[in-house]
Write a structure and sequence with these properties.
It is a single chain. The chain is built from 18 helices and no strands. The termini are far apart. The longest helix is centred in the middle third of the chain and has 29 residues. It has one domain.
């Protein structure tokens, strides 16, 4: 059976709106569009906040809209739906991980989902990062929406492991992300490099070459989880250069129909591969040498996984509803669901829930675990949970930054002074 190891975690990530081709002022409202169309997002949402995962920023995420007296920009249901469905798959994957050593079917589903759920999140993160530059307000939102939550949850997860796993020696290290926090530091690095990717030629092949070099470089080490940062980089860069028409293309009826046999083939392939390969490849946290294979295998696996991930991500997007659904509003809270569900996922291992209940490894138990995981992460994405934990996820922190002249002028203008 496979050598399943605890997964990286996901999500944060996540996604600020993008800069349209024709430059607009930062406070410009999007032009009217036809129903169900994929918008060209407006610039300036916070990368690590709930608005960062949306097609348009919510006024409560950064306070900018409130300060200037502007109405909130409209969110796009397609992307909110995609984020919610992806975070549900993330939670399911974590729930299936303890089952994979005893169930080939669970391992096949696990490998299939892990092929595309993080790439889909990262691609959307890149798509909504197209407007990022070194403007002070965007740098502030990068700090408050990504860097600060990273510090808070890195400390919180470490303390939780000390207590829950009876491991008082677990160190607090901001240089060595633990569990889900890797995505935050990765998003921070990716977004800082966005201006560079905008000026190079053939950015996606270049990012893929960097990923291949990373997978054959065991000396990179664990600092800032750079293996993951570099190996997942091509998906972020691909998202940077996606256009609205690309999302329209994958949502065509014929693509939706073709995606069914593609997904079926992927599950069958994963079922065949389950006892023959390790699922650690999907975490992208180790070099080929650390996995005990020749260096060239790492390059082949990087290219193969990239192709499979892009294909299944397109199939996933093909089935994401474009209209408003009952869960659409939860798309704004995927950051909360992502970070908070990790405590329950880890706690279930620390306290031996799966070992103490053998029936969970039976088919009915596997279904039960799947439903519970989906229900828990759904609850954690709801607005009441967002309000409760906004202090950690989306801190305002005006006290930490100097007020520039432009912001002060906007405040005075809005107040009529």
């Amino acid at each position: 059976m496979t050598n399943s190891v605890q997964p990286h975690g996901r999500h944060r990530a996540p996604l600020p709106p993008v800069q349209p081709p024709v430059p607009e002022p930062a406070d410009a409202m999007p032009a009217p569009r036809a129903p169900h169309s994929v918008p060209r997002p407006a610039p300036g949402s916070a990368p690590g906040s709930s608005s960062a995962y949306a097609a348009a920023p919510a006024p409560t995420a950064t306070g900018d809209s409130r300060a200037a007296g502007r109405p909130a920009k409209q969110r796009d249901s397609f992307f909110d739906n995609a984020k919610y469905l992806a975070i549900v798959l993330v939670a399911m994957g974590h729930a299936w991980e303890p089952l994979t050593d005893h169930s080939r079917s669970a391992e096949a589903l696990y490998m299939t989902v892990y092929t595309f759920h993080m790439p889909a999140f990262i691609l959307i993160s890149g798509y909504f990062s197209r407007s990022f530059d070194m403007r002070p307000d965007r740098l502030k939102r990068l700090v408050t929406g990504v860097a600060v939550p990273y510090v808070i949850f890195e400390v919180a997860y470490t303390l939780f492991k000390r207590w829950g796993d009876d491991d008082p020696t677990q160190p607090i290290s901001l240089l060595d992300p633990w569990y889900l926090t890797w995505f935050l530091i990765a998003l921070f690095v990716w977004r800082l490099t966005t201006p560079l990717w905008k000026i190079v030629r053939r950015p996606v092949p270049l990012a893929l070459a960097i990923a291949m070099l990373a997978v054959i470089s065991p000396d990179i080490g664990d600092d800032l989880d750079l293996q993951r940062v570099l190996q997942f980089l091509p998906f972020f860069v691909l998202g940077l250069f996606m256009k609205p028409e690309h999302f329209q293309l994958v949502r065509r009826r014929e693509v939706r129909i073709l995606s069914v046999p593609v997904f079926a083939a992927a599950v069958l392939c994963a079922y065949w591969a389950a006892p023959r390969m390790t699922s650690v490849w999907f975490y992208r946290r180790d070099s080929a040498q650390e996995l005990g294979v020749p260096w060239w295998v790492g390059i082949v696996m990087t290219l193969a996984l990239f192709g499979c991930s892009v294909l299944l991500t397109a199939c996933f997007f093909a089935w994401v509803p474009r209209r408003r659904m009952w869960f659409t509003v939860l798309g704004a809270g995927t950051l909360y669901g992502y970070l908070l569900h990790g405590f329950l996922a880890k706690g279930s291992r620390f306290w031996g829930w799966f070992d103490a209940n053998p029936w969970l490894h039976e088919p009915a138990g596997e279904v039960f675990v799947t439903v519970v995981a989906a229900a828990v992460v759904t609850l954690l994405c709801t607005p009441p949970v967002q309000r409760l934990f906004r202090f950690a996820m989306e801190p305002r922190m005006e006290w930490a930054f100097r007020r520039d002249a432009a912001a002060l002028a906007r405040e005075r203008s809005s107040s009529g002074r």
